Amino acid sequence: MSADLGEIVLGKSNDELPRSGASTPLYPHNTDFSVPDALLSGTIMTKVSEKKQKQVIFHLDPDEGRILYKSRKTGMIPIETIKEIRAGTNAHYYREQFKFPEEAEARWITVIYILEGAYKTLHMLAPTRDVFLMWDQALHKLFAIRQGLMTGLGNLDMRQAVWERQYWKGADKEGDQRLVFDEVETMCKRLNVNLSRDELRRIFTLADPNKQGYLDFPAFQHFVKVLKRRPEIERLYDNLRASNTGQFDFTIFEKFMYETQKSKLSQTDLQAIFDKYSSRYSPLPPASVVSAQTPLQASSPSTTLSTTAAAVSGTAAIASSTQTLSVEGFISFLLSPDNAPFSEKQDVIWQDMSLPISEYYISSSHNTYLVGHQLVGVSTIEGYIRALLHSCRSVELDIYDGDSEPVIFHGKTLTSKVPLRDICQAIAKYAFMTSPYALLISAEVHCGIEQQDKMVEIMTSIFGEALISAPVEGRPKIEVLPSPEDLKGKFLLKAKNLYVVAQLEALRLQKAVANKPTLEADPSSSSSSSDSEKDADGKRGGVRGGMDQLKEKWRKARGKDPARPSKPKVRMSFKLASLLVYTVGVKCHGIDSSIEYAPEHIFSLSENTANKLVKASMTDLVKHNQNHMVRIYPKGTRVNSTNYAPHRYWAAGAQVVAINWQTFDLGYMINQAMFQRNGRSGYILKPPALREGAKDLLSKHTKHFLDVSIISAQQLPRLKDSSGQEIVEKSVVDPFVQVSLHIPDWTHSPFLPESATTAGAKYSAPTDATLTAATSARTVSFNTCVVKNNGFNPVWQEELCLPFDCIGDMKELIFVEFAIRQEGKDDNDDAPIAIYCTPLSCLESGFRHLPLHDSQLTQHLFSTLFVKVSIRDVD
After folding, report:
1. Domain EF-hand: where (predicted)?
2. Sign of dihedral through CA atoms 377, 378, 384, 386?
3. Residue 680 DSSP label
4. What pairs with residue 631 in β-bridges?
């Protein structure tokens, strides 16, 4: 992606603007790609929806990054809200859904995007193949550019070019390629710049030295560079170089990197970084010079700010031979991937993938087929595609008998049905696009033998040899589970094997009958009444009653109950059993030594059951999960598809902790933050404390402080209306920052010293879910003060101190969340203005710019939070 971006703009100037002709360069002087003028002026295409099809004129605005069309509702789709573009054969599902002929497929484009927290689709049918190709190529290129800017803080030149063109185009309402003062003032309102009209007029005059009364594009570039000054970094820069006779040389840089940034790079690597930024950037004009109202000189579009600085101050840059770093170079370094806040390379799979699969956390989804409400939501292939493209490695199928083939839906609800075949085709297509590692298909099978066989036939024909299978008879005993590396590109079916379930139940009953003293502890026995009492069915209670019930179950299991005909049971297809190899679903009969589970046995626990196990026998659960897999899923009463806090169960070693991916809440955010790691492979190696031979680590309990300086934010997003449009008028941003630590409840008493609470830290105990609210783990949070009416460059310079405890040094299971909120908005009911969340172990120390995201975790193109971070140990 980054290489693609570089080909488009790096080293190019940005002075040329859209012009007439056959096509317009996406970014100036770029010969690789141009936007056809037909798309700028608009083309007529068929807009397809469930209700109707109509002819609509669609425009593409590459500068502001939007698809535009006339609509009573929205009529505008920002490119950065697009999650996927499916065109041609990739849109086969929709073409069939709307019953269009096969020839329409070659002209079909479906755009999937997010609006107000909900997934939306736009279906367009081009009139000709040529029009389709124009739209397909332009959309994919624009989408690639925006996506490249939404994966961290890289591509600085492209980011600046996109910013300049987007806001130039938005401000130039007359389209005359010049901005008068009123247009500039309107743009600044859109940016939420907190400057008086007189101050704006002063900067405007500086950028217009020839007194033309307007800004052309080069003058506009100079204007925004002054507008986007970073005085808080300039002060840091001055403080650092003050100890070295005013020169910021490599000695100062090296000291800063090792002492403040806690860099682990070699001196050679640091020298290379220093050379990169000292050679590329020269000094900015001092703030005092700009405030002195010395006219800014016009420059060629490719001129750096250093020439502007020289023109303004009348002084030359420091001689390059001295190898010094300018303040602009320092700012660029602090904003660059060379100073990323995330300690791991997110695009690299770096962990050891050769250990048994039970030693990894696996990115997992629950009710993957749903895209909304649990009771009346829509079942669709969309949930699978979204999850798989975001590196989910465990999807769920609820399979029922259909008219001729099995179907997927949420049983005993009003949710719609989707053919199993359609879903398997979607899974096969998207399974390994993001991650090459095994996909676990967790199936609840509710259909009869005939359609179980049909289910196997469908999966075998679609997944082919990638589907793991083994004969039921004569299967060799599995001593240890295979690794993710062993299972690359494979599909694993997980479902209950009724034969194995019956064998384990019979074994459990046999042991229970032979071991009478344990009967009272058996959950299947009734001990709520005396021996002489009977329950509502007339059966004896107490120990004797429990004994009778166990014997009765044992006789039934062995087929020896002539007195009462056994209730017919659903049989299981041997073909289906052959697909259950390394993930054989069984019922949980506890996790003590009374039942021995094979390595391939996996059971599913609802969150309520999991909570009980965690409270009653956390150590036993951790030990079980060292060699066996466990799946946790949200309880059924979560009708709004809310989520629990997944790290509560990761802390117990559970591997497959399933999340409702259709709900953008705290649980979803933590899950996504966890699996951004390890190259987004969907597999994360569990911390050493939760793997075999780590008993000593689990007994290690430490206490710490997270010290955070909230310094400033840059260009916070404006509030938007229901159609996704920015609210400019009567929209005031009064931001504050809330920093929260989400900590597993792994100790009975949290570390919360009085000094922290006195300073303003707030503690929230773990909470259980309601019908509409998610659960939370232990949380410690701290709020800054409010900066009034400034969303462009608010400065806090506030120090926060958050206490936390840790078991076994498992800081990767503690999540730190930075949420920028609007004063007066309820934390629980209102989405934050912007957020950033990461495992605490991945947050780098020192001065960092955090890329900010919306509540759906889509990164804002231009918004950052500037902080200083350190972790302090308590003796």
Report:
1. 195-230
2. negative
3. G
4. 604, 656
Cα separation, 178 vs 174, in Å, equals 8
d(CA 416, CA 374): 11
Q: How far is CA 836 from CA 156, 713, 748, 840, in A?
A: 20, 12, 29, 12
**Positive/negative CA dihedral, 295, 299, 304, 306:** negative
Q: Compute the Cα dihedral for 308, 313, 314, 318 and give only its sign.
A: negative
Q: How many CB atoms lie within 10 A of CB 597?
A: 18
Q: What mean pLDDT is predicted for residues 750-772?
A: 78
Q: How far apart (Å, rounded) are the C-alpha atoms in residues 392 and 439? A: 8
Closest CA to 782 of 752, 757, 750: 757
pLDDT for 22-79, tens place per residue? 566 555 444 456 889 999 999 999 999 988 999 999 999 999 899 999 887 778 999 9
**Rounded to a whole number, what is the largest CA-CA distance in the chain?**
106
Sign, Cα dihedral of 585, 591, 596, 600: positive
Note the pLDDT tens digit of each residue in 511-542: 777 765 543 333 333 333 333 333 333 444 43
Torsion of CA 168, 173, 175, 180, to 10 degrees: -70
585: enclosing H helix or E strand = strand 584-585
Instruction: Give the length of the chain.
Output: 875
Q: Which has the closest alpha carbon to 421: 460, 466, 393, 450?
A: 460
CA dihedral angle for residue 466, residue 471, residue 476, residue 477, rounded to 10 degrees: 80
CA distance 314 to 306: 11
* For range 416-445, the mean pLDDT: 94
Output the six-digit token pair for 465.
Answer: 């040899």
Region 802-816 average pLDDT: 96
HSE of 543, CA atoms in CB hemisphere, 13 A? 7
Q: What is the pLDDT of residue 568?
A: 47
Domains in the chain with CATH codes: 2-155 (2.30.29.30), 157-339 (1.10.238.10), 357-497+572-690 (3.20.20.190), 500-557 (no CATH), 700-874 (2.60.40.150)
Three-point CA angle 770, 776, 779, nearest 5°: 145
In the block, residue with structure tokens 């009778």 = 548
Helices (H), 350-441: 382-389, 420-430
Closest CA to 14 of 299, 331, 309, 335: 299
Residue showing tokens 């209670």? 541
Amino acid present at 204: F
A 10 A CB-CB count for 589 gives 20
Distance between CA 598 and CA 620 in Å, rounded? 16
Q: How far apart are CA 795 and CA 662, in angstroms?
A: 35
Can you give the pLDDT at residue 654?
97
Please state, in angstroms and as integers, the Cα–Cα distance from residue 251 to each residue in 35, 320, 326, 462, following that order.
Answer: 48, 16, 14, 61
Q: Judge contact between 761 and 739, C-beta under 8 A.
A: no
Q: What DSSP character marks residue 257?
A: I
Question: How are beta strands 701-714 and 859-874 bridged, if at all?
Answer: antiparallel
Strand duo 66-69 + 53-61: pairing: antiparallel
CB 870 within 8 A of CB 707: yes
Report the C-alpha gap between 97 and 207 in whole angstroms.
56
End-to-end CA distance of the chain: 46
3-state secondary structure of 121: strand
Please name the amino acid found at residue 191: L
Q: At what angle do helices 382-389 and 420-430 cross, to 10 degrees?
A: 20
Count CA atoms closer than 13 A to 38's CA, side-chain side: 12
pTM: 0.85
Burial (CB count <10 Å: 0-12, 13-18, 19+), residue 559: exposed
Q: Which of 107, 104, 112 is nearest to 143 (CA)?
A: 112
- Contact of 516 with 547, CB cutoff 8 Å: yes
The phi and psi torsions of 850 (rounded to 5 degrees) equal: -95, 125
